[in-house]
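DATA SHEET
Item: assembly model
Revision: 1
Owner: S.N.
Input lines:
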Amino acid sequence: MTVEIVIAGRRTRARRRAIVVTALAAGVLIAYAVTLMVGQTFYTPGEVVQVILGQQVPGASFTVGTLRLPRATLALLAGAAFGLAGVTFQTLLRNPLASPDVIGISAGASAAAVFAGVTLGLGDQQVSIFALVAALVTATAIYLLSHKAGFSGIRLILIGIGVAAMLNSLINYLLSKAAAWDLQVAMQWLTGSLNGASWERVLPLLIVVLVLGPVLMSVSRSFGALHLGDDSAAALGVRTDRTRLLMILAAVALLAFATAATGPIAFVAFMAGPIAARLVGPGGSMLLPSALVGALLVLLADLVGQFAFGTRYPVGVITGVLGAPFLIYLLIRTNRAGGSL
Amino acid sequence: MTDDDRLSAQSLTLAYGDREVVHDLDLSIPSGQITAIVGANGCGKSTVLRALARLLKPRSGTVLLDGDEIHRLPSREVARRLGLLPQSPTAPEGIVVADLIGRGRHPHQRFLARWSAADYAAVADALDATGIADLADRAVDELSGGQRQRVWIAMALAQQTDILLLDEPTTFLDVTHQVEVLDLLTDLNRERGTTIAMVLHDLNLAARYADRLVAVRAGRIHSVGAPDEVITEQNVREVFGLESQVMPDPVSGKPLVLPRGRHHS
Amino acid sequence: MSTATLGGRPTGAAALRRPVGVRLAWLAGGVVLLVVLFAASLAFGARDVSLDEILAALSGRANGVGEAAVTLRMPRTVLAMLVGAALALSGCAMQAVTRNPLADPAILGITPGASLAVVIGIAFFGLSSSYSYIGVATLGAAVASIFVYAVGSMGRGGATPLKLALAGAASAAAFTSLVSAILLPRVDILETFRFWQIGGVGGASWDRILVVAPFLGLGALICLASARGMNSLALGDDMAAGLGVRVGRTRLLAAAGAVILAGAATAIAGPIGFVGLVVPHLCRLIVGTDHRWLIPFSALAGAALLTLADIIGRVLTRPEEIEVGIVTAFIGAPVFIWLVRRQKVREL
């Protein structure tokens, strides 16, 4: 009976998704725990738990509580935020290569952050606000500029590339005017780094992720329909313009806050979605898997960057070096398979 | 032919930006029949279909669905009564046939995307109706053009609408698959009473399969009626700018258009 | 161009040919503009100089501060013109070879590829001479262009503008990331590279110009020689072959010219974007699509544009300077956006 075939097929796929998502979540938890335990001094899980519970443990309270905990939490949240933002854009533009890093929105946030931090010398909070506003303005500008007799994903991508080039130039200019010591710090930030993580930085991001994550998930059904093309989605009853706007706003906000907190961690927004799709299999909601993959990527990259080599590399360098070949691989794959261009 | 035309357009004017494409057009899609919209390239036939499918807001005039202005109705409501197969639908990479068909259940599903018994039944029914039950677990990317088109039709079927609109469903298919798809649509119409309106570029296939033909020229309706009435040498000349001879097709008895070019007349 | 008739109607370019006289006039105008800009570049800057001082410096007497400034500005101006011409030619050739209106050495990821090659050379092989930079940069440019073109042309539709641009942008992102990865721990070369990367003609000197000039000359000659071939390429591979053009060879030659120009220009002045994209388009509006006119005109216009950009960069925030690469980005990006909006989506 056909119905039974369909039910059986879906059940198999659902089971695979559940297993993979659980494994990813477990991976994230383990990576998080390891980040707390490992370092110059090794702390046992017991000590870590004590610190989390608020007890005073000599030595651990500072190292784990003040240094590692914010860092690990920031890594997790930023990774999740980048993952969500990336997969949203890739779905909206129906193109895995159209991640916000490529189409200029990260560049906008970065330019504002460099301007605020280096040129104006402002503090963390204000830098975040600058980054957020700039990201929103950039995204709006790109969206409006590409809007000519209707929405065109292709035009948006191309215009985004142009805007990214312009903004990157601006960043270079601002950096060239910076003092030497500022330069290194700025460059580190520009690659994406978790250094100097503090609860002040974590808190805004935490709120944003906790609020916007569910917002995105609430429209995740429409994700699937939108992936079929605007006409099909509209025919299925999706309010395309409204849904799209909501998705873009949420994605841009997530991206901006994460960028303000850690700098643009290279390629995470780009990689999370396609990796999640490969692991989980197509056909279901990509939001949670992408968030988990993003978080895992950042946590792992930070561990590698801190301990695997002689020098400490900021997390963005590791994701960059990983992401570049993956990007190229995906490019080749997408084009070869005809892509959804 | 029928009194209840569930879908109709009145005084419809459609434009892209400043360019008016369709002018003051009246059209009704008779229920329970197959209507084919034909015309030369750029005459506005796809535009009309998109307006009927609620994808385009008219500059003036209205599209009515069951007596209500289609743009006033909630989108979910429209999606439950009207299904659409657009011109170049895109499938997410690697998606499986059953899942893609399941997307058609979107207007019937609540907040959570869990499939109910009704959803499963609808998908299974769509698979059977389009004869692709054996492809249920295959990836859409791997299928042939004809099979893929059947999957898209199945998705529209799973929506369980009474009316189905198709924008050039046969354009990129070879002859065998063109006939397959049109035969399938005919089955749906005869067995389930689905109202079908489609834009076709092949005049002869349209003549063969449609109960009613609508010829569009330069954004206006040129002629409407049964194939025998619409497909005449005069009309073909006026709508397509083509000299031709029209005679009954020996296979189906419907009108067959034989073009006269400079070398063959 | 063929003036054969089909079915009684005259075809194609015959109806659209601009009179030779008009084009010559524009060409002459371009040369005049260049001379004017040369003078302006010598005159304006952090400190304006008078005509007397310019003339004095030109005849070799460098006594006052003004004349010293002019002496400094001369190689700089010459370099700006050479690099501008090179980039414009490179873009023109790339647009012809890829039949892509959005082709430009920076967008196609070629200049970042050259940068990556230079960084690898400096960081791991300790390269330091101008010659080696040029060689390595050209190599990097070649590898990057092959790579981007190969990836962009896979799959349905071949090398469409969108696919190439995406391949280029993605590759640029990849290359830039690798550059950061290599540079970050190397504080010693960070400063040098950063300065180079912004894209400037500030460090110009006659020796450096002499080093790079032969390469630029070679590339320009190749492009000029391929001009007729480029006209045919615009019709599509099949059509061109039908007209008797050796498509593969012409393409390779033109591409080689483009890559040498892009590589050498990047090696000496760092990555400068948008010149290669914008200049050919503007020139097309004036002299049409015949590459035998378009190539020389693009060279002139590119030289003029970069010189102008350099002047603006020196004057706008004086006494500070804005590097020319940044000025071109700010001029070029809006033009690029305008170009994208003009195209029909289907052509992209």
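QC remark: Chains B and C do not touch (no CB pair under 8 Å).
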